[in-house]
Design goal:
Length: 101
């Protein structure tokens, strides 16, 4: 199918530059990346990633009750038993990136 449709968007110049540097390193033109995104939207029948408002920030244990702490610890224990774990360096990198901690 011929590529005849145009897409015009406004984004922050810094975001555009950062994304294009990564795409260039991958050898991928921005138009191809956008096409890939659109194809994934069609295939997934929605966004190809989670888009949620109920994101949970890390819990400050000084602000929760003993029962709430035990419940969170139990969740972590169950995750460990079921293999839902990540290497510690990934966890610290993610915390630093998302929360600056």
């Amino acid at each position: 199918m011929a590529k005849t449709a145009n897409l015009y968007v406004r984004i922050e110049p810094e975001l555009k530059e950062q994304a294009e540097q990564i795409l260039n390193a991958l050898g991928l033109p921005p138009s191809s990346a956008i096409t890939m995104f659109y194809k994934q939207v069609v295939m997934q029948q929605g966004l190809p990633f989670d888009a949620r408002l109920n994101y949970r920030k890390p819990i400050d244990i000084s602000s929760i009750t003993k029962d709430e702490l035990n419940m969170e610890l139990e969740k972590g224990y169950q995750d460990a038993l079921e293999g839902r774990t990540k290497p510690i360096n990934e966890v610290f990198e993610s915390l630093d990136k998302e929360f600056g901690i």
